[in-house]
Design goal:
With about 475 residues, the protein is an alpha+beta fold. It has three domains: about 5-285, no CATH class; about 295-410, no CATH class; about 415-475, Arc Repressor Mutant, subunit A (Orthogonal Bundle). The chain is built from 15 helices and 16 strands. The protein has helices at about 55-65, 165-180, 220-240, 285-290, 300-310, 315-320, 325-330, 340-355, 370-380, 385-395, 400-410, 415-430, 430-440, 445-455, 465-475, and strands at about 5-15, 70, 75, 75-80, 90-95, 100-110, 115-125, 130-135, 140-145, 150-160, 195-205, 215-220, 250-255, 260-265, 270-275, 280. The mean pLDDT is about 90.
Length: about 475
């Protein structure tokens, strides 16, 4: 029998507001433990929560970016359960009346075919405290940091439309890009501002039944999400083939062992309306204002980049994935009228360098103006491609212009015809066997001579002029 997977995602996104959801404590990850607390987020008896207007606006903006329908009325409930990171015994969350419903995102399957995946609803909730487990050097102990308690979250619950790890990964990439464009969150799995739980079940191919699902947690990268889903599909398929039941429970992903491991049995406590937080009523005028402020979204930018700059669809997709990088590209080509070359350099050299350093374009000294100057210097043969790549890396870390780095490091390209001719003649004199190879029809000999010349000039020779000189001399 052939089986298919039924996958739904629950994505928690932390909103980048300056304060928490129900109090004025700073929403600032990375501070010393238990520094940003008050009676409200410590859940002291009698402390009343007050909903943050900015958190609501950011949540609505994110929902609009996900093509959701904003509900005219939403409300908070008490999601009752007890765990050390939630000592009051319940979490304020929107269970019965969520903020938004019926959203969707389009993904590309196999890089070409468009597929629409549904979002069931999006609700707001407060984050819980953070448990820190210390096991080294003393008796194991668990500590609680309340800095995160009360941070504003939205939870995005998808429809069970996903059928493969690849679709899940692509959905998360699109979702992350859409929310980043709205400015509501950084959506970093590595830093914890985006957290993903996956619900996976298996059924016979083509059937409409919904079998027992298993929830997988603890995935801190999109690749981990894909790997965990793939493993769980294989594990559950094995259970079916052995006629073993799939039990309803929660599992953790172990990235080192590349497997899911049991965590706990699945349970859900009651959700009762909360009497302390007023209902949220959204009118058409206020909502229209938020829609009007929504920025140009990635799919719109892709079409404009193709039409305005002549980019291929693949180039436009890469240039529009990140809002900051797309703005960097557009500022570069204001006065640099080779948009495809700029896009190629960003794709081939700039993006890999940023990923290697785990930083964003806004965290480096490189500006669109400096990037434009660098490309112009190469176009004018002042530096060759190898030197340009080295200058680009230095521009990320040094607050200098390309011209300053070129002069300081001696990167300027050697283009004097007399100097290059002497280098060419010396290389040919020292390698007579290479000349014979070339005359015998071995075209690789030209590359051999070029390599020798570039080494002799420490990579500074103009390769175009070198090739012309070698070809002329050899003829």
């Amino acid at each position: 029998m052939t089986y298919e997977a039924v996958i739904g995602l629950e994505v928690h996104v932390e909103l980048n507001t300056p304060t928490k959801l129900f109090c004025d404590c700073p929403n600032r990850p990375g501070d010393l433990p238990n520094l940003n607390t008050c009676p409200v987020c410590l859940w002291f008896p009698g402390a009343l929560p007050q909903l943050s207007q900015e958190a609501l606006e950011k949540a609505v903006t994110a929902c609009l970016g996900l093509n959701c329908t904003i509900q005219t009325e939403s409300a908070f409930d008490q999601k009752v359960y007890y765990y050390p990171d939630l000592p009051k015994g319940f979490q304020l969350s929107q269970h019965h009346k969520p903020l938004a419903k019926k959203g969707w995102l389009d993904i590309l399957v196999d890089g070409r075919k468009s597929q629409r995946l549904g979002i069931h609803h999006v609700h707001m909730e407060e984050d819980v405290a953070k448990l820190i487990h210390e096991t080294e050097g003393r008796t194991p102990v668990s500590l609680v940091d309340f800095n995160r308690a009360g941070a504003p979250l939205i939870e995005i619950v998808t429809e069970p439309d996903i059928r493969s790890p690849e679709e899940a990964m692509e959905f998360l990439k699109v979702l992350r890009s859409q929310i980043r464009y709205t400015g509501a969150s950084e959506c970093s799995l590595e830093k914890g501002s985006m957290r993903v739980d996956a619900n996976i079940s298996i059924r016979p191919q083509g059937s409409g039944i919904m079998n027992t699902k298993v929830e997988v947690k603890n995935m801190n990268s999109i690749q981990n999400v894909g790997d965990a889903i793939a493993y769980e599909i294989k594990r559950q398929t094995g259970c079916f083939e052995k006629s073993e039941p799939v039990l309803l429970h929660t599992r953790l992903w172990d990235p080192e062992k590349q497997m899911t491991v049991p965590m706990r049995s699945k349970f859900s406590g009651p959700c009762v309306p909360d009497p302390t937080v007023p209902r949220i009523i959204i009118n058409d005028t206020w909502l229209a204002e938020k829609k009007a402020k929504l920025p140009e979204m990635p799919i719109q930018k892709v079409e404009r980049f193709i039409k305005s700059y002549g980019l291929t669809r693949d180039e436009a997709l890469i240039m529009s994935q990140d809002r900051d990088l797309s703005e960097f590209f557009e500022k570069t080509v204001i006065n640099y009228h080779q948009p495809r070359k700029a896009a190629n350099w960003i794709t081939s050299h700039l993006i890999p360098a940023l990923k290697e350093r785990e930083i964003s374009i806004n965290e480096v000294f490189l500006t669109p103006e400096r990037f434009q100057s660098l490309l112009c210097m190469q176009d004018k043969d002042k530096i060759n491609a190898k030197a340009a790549r080295e200058v680009l890396l230095r521009l990320l870390e040094e607050n200098k212009s390309p011209e300053e780095i070129v002069e300081e490091q001696g990167f300027r390209q050697l283009s004097d015809i007399d100097d290059l001719e002497s280098v060419v003649e010396r290389i040919l004199q020292d390698n007579p066997s290479g000349i014979q190879d070339y005359k015998a029809g071995n075209t690789k000999a030209l590359g051999f001579f070029m390599g020798k010349a570039m080494k002799a000039t420490q990579g500074k020779a103009n390769p175009k002029m070198l090739k012309e000189l070698f070809t002329k001399k050899l003829a």
